Amino acid sequence: IYILAIESSCDETAAAVVKNGREVLSNIISSQIELHKLYGGVVPEIASRKHIEKINPVIREALAEAGMKLGDMDAIGVTYGPGLVGALLVGVAAAKAISYAKNIPLVGVHHIEGHISANYIENKDLEPPFLGMVVSGGHTHLVMVEDYGKYEILGKTRDDAAGEAFDKVARAIGLGYPGGPKIDKLAKEGNPRAIAFPRAHVADAPLDFSFSGLKSSVLNYINSCEMKHQKICRADVAASFQAAVVDAIVSHTILAAKTYHIDKVALAGGVASNSALRQAMKEKCEAAGLKFYYPSPILCTDNAAMIGCAAYYEYLAGTRHGLDLNAVPNLKIGQR
Ligand code: ATP
Ligand code: MG
Ligand code: FE
Question: Whose Cα sits closest to atom 16 in ligand 1?
Fold first, then answer.
């Protein structure tokens, strides 16, 4: 089964050809980061316009690199939510046009289910059930993957997502957008125990997260240093903030695995690239007797290969979408 997958939910225009769900024949990503950097974050209207410009060339390149034609495809997989509505619509419209013109089945995919599925690509032995820890720009979700396409949310953030917190703190210490990778790098030169920032626990909901208190605490620290004319060690702030985020994510994951008696854990989403998070998860999972999976950085960021993988299992389960498929900006995990 060959699937052409398309992703355009945020600021990456991406297309991929995936064979039998787990073999990536091509994975083309056109990122708009350089464009949005000027504004300190993603500007939805600019993102939509850039997607329109890039979508056809990116699809053509994905097919060329795989050495295949549209007619060779068994299905078209496309992200239809969640994300920016104008951005999603570009991918959905392209997928529907191809589906109609070539009479190829259309399979709509949930972006976060795609992020989780990225783990299948390099770990051929990974099968449900397992615990998914999604840490991305807009989501911080602990998800039980009961079966292919079958998900249950065990915990999530009450306010900011992990990636959002990284980006906001990075802006506060003048690192620019996107902040995650920059904090990751700077933190390597700092002391993670220099400043005791609060951990993101929520009373009476042990598997939920809250990062807004942590973010405020970092901002307060910076302000009070400035008022006292104390020099701020940005590397220490980065390292201490990162340690607080990593601590919360790792401890929640281990707690969920123990509570639900599951011995496999998979990290997913853009923040899954974070080196301190990967390291801490590896150590803590090993100590707890859990098997730990994580995707390569290129499969953590927004990409279409992960969408092709998720689309494959949806295709096998019989999911087909019609030409009335619409973009759903607030699509829920598990919704069809
Ligand atoms: P969502 O997937 O929730 O819809 P998104 O698609 O915008 O949101 P992703 O592309 O999955 O998010 O991830 C982007 C986020 O990951 C950004 O917030 C970015 O700062 C963060 N990020 C990327 N690399 C790192 C890193 N090494 N350390 C920490 N954060 C990182
Ligand atoms: Mg992005
Ligand atoms: Fe994403």
Answer: 270
